[in-house]
Amino acid sequence: MATLKSWINAARPRTLPLALSGIFMGCGLAWFYGAIDAIVSLLAIVTATLIQIFSNFANDYGDSQKGADNQFRLGPIRTVQSGEISHKEMETGMILVGGLSFLTGILLVYLGTWHISKIAFFIFIGFGILSLIAAYFYTAGKKSYGYIGLGDVFVFLFFGLLPVPGVFYLNAGFLTASVFLPAITIGLFSTGVLNLNNMRDIVNDRNSGKITIPVRIGAQKARFYHLSLILGGWIFALVFTLKYFQSIWQLLFLVTLPFFVLDLRKIFRIQNEKELDPFLKRLALSTLAFTLLFCLGFIISTR
């Protein structure tokens, strides 16, 4: 029987800061616009955390089925691969966490939309169901899109372009086009984390038939692709900042820039793919720090 430690490992706590960055950005922007709802924000955080854990369970389950999690993989040993959690236990875990996320999601969407628009309620429920389906079919199932190079597109959507404006709307009750600028930033940074993961596992993925973008374009071009993701994220954040610039506090997020730059330099110099592993966590934490300081600066500027 799987231990609590095994389930915690399967939940992959180091991925949670990245999953929450989009939620925090949506909440922070709603606060900046003077339309924050504490209960909606808390439910959004809980729901996003559960969906990310469900996604990690499904990823562990799917990669073990397809053989991508094996002795040649350079990342951490996964729980199903190692036998810590059986396939049956993981299936049960996915059902429980997925079901719980759906229940908290219904409450979240009800509180954020029902009094404004019944149509919006059903649209958001659809997005919630779609996010669970996307989380499962990333590596699980017969037609998993993570094995044909589409993982980057879905990470960009479900970590940035959907959660930021979605959470903003659930808090504020309206949507403005400008929130898509920081949403793109979080989406690009999140895709960068996935790209680092795929760069690290490029050899094993190629041998396992997992056709990621680094497998398609090669290790060196994948580094330039990574650079474009990070640079693009910063550009969109700066465009939003200049559009609404009122105070020097709105530049507070620039404190995190050296961390992004230094890591990029190191990534380009690394020759052994295994050495890329720590940079996944570093980019996830840098993204979270960027998000918190970005929102804090904008909130302070309104006082």
The CATH C-level class name: Mainly Alpha
Average predicted confidence as pLDDT: 89
Question: In CATH terms, what is the fold-level topology?
Answer: Farnesyl Diphosphate Synthase
Beta-strand residue percentage: under 5%
- The tally of structural domains comes to 1
N-C termini distance = 54 Å
How many strand units?
0
Number of helices: 14
Any idea what the shape is? Answer: globular
Based on CA atoms alone, the radius of gyration comes out at 19 Å
Class of secondary structure makeup: mainly alpha
Percent helix among the residues? over 70%
Question: In the CATH hierarchy, what is the architecture at level 2?
Answer: Orthogonal Bundle
